[in-house]
Amino acid sequence: MSEVRDGGLNGALSDVLLTGSAPTRPRFSFEVFPARSGAAALALGNAVQHLAAAGPDFISVTYGANGSNRGASRDLVKYLRDHTDALPLAHLTTVGESRDAILEAIHGIMDTGVHDFLALRGDPPRGSDESDPAVAGSLSSLELVKLVAQARAERPAFTSVGRTSVAAYPNGHPLSRSRSEDLDWLVAKQEAGAQFAITQLFFRAEEYLEFVADGRGAGLTIPVLPGLMPVATAAQLRKVAELAGRPAPSELVREIEDAGGYAPELGVEHTTALARELLAGGAPSLHLYTFNRHERVLAVLRELELLAPVGV
Ligand code: FAD
Prior knowledge:
TIM Barrel, alpha/beta, disordered N terminus, 8-stranded parallel β-barrel
């Protein structure tokens, strides 16, 4: 059995989680996804080394997006565990899986020495939708939070380590009918044992800040990490708008189009400005969707002076 690293999230985020105190210095974390080809895997290996060297609280790894690639997710969390100093956090989804299969997947990840999870219901697999009985009948994210707790209890040596996080939707989830339903559901996930939440992408600081403020009013006490992605292309911008459930700022759309559809520096500029507003508004940490590239997210952190200067 491999040694258990650290027992949870590092640094200031740990303080926030353990004591509820404000971090002395804003923290950050990253999201990556399993590579889809050998060449992409080589590039990802290089990217995660750079990301890990920046000293994040954790690097999260997406799981079975569209019902595929699950073994690859496990391999990637194990790679992070074995070959970097970063703490891996494994996404888990329930869609289309039996309770026993999910429990086995959780144990499989714990056996790699990884104990931190993001518990998700998951998107319907390609070619399926919410009306599919296999999707509708899946365990909820709430039940998954409880299943992770059960899996930890079944591995007594690890009961004191690892944290469970969940997703939050500042602009609402497509399944939700109202802000209050989203917040009630998030508070229910907290009551089931979730220790922090990570948000879906969004473009404007007030969307996060108002969501968190409303959440506090509804009994939400756990930290909510804003999810941000510095886009490089017009296609990525459209994808973020789809996930955010809101149109991208028209000026950013126009500027990227004027640059011929590729303008990584504009994505960095927009994300840096957004991050400044979020941190000023009280966000405890930034969760950066990397799109498996290190350059843009590290440029954002450098602009925010959250990275140690090179050579120090
Ligand atoms: P839930 O939180 O369970 O539900 C989403 C919303 O639906 C709730 O906020 C609530 O409004 C409503 N709802 C659901 N059930 C109820 C109920 N019983 N009562 C009232 N309201 C309810 N997908 C992947 O496939 N793989 C990934 O790795 C992945 N990573 C993600 C990471 C982050 C940070 C985020 C934000 C999303 C990620 N997703 C991923 C997408 C996610 O799986 C989808 O958005 C999915 O449709 C919902 O999953 P969830 O766990 O957020 O669902």
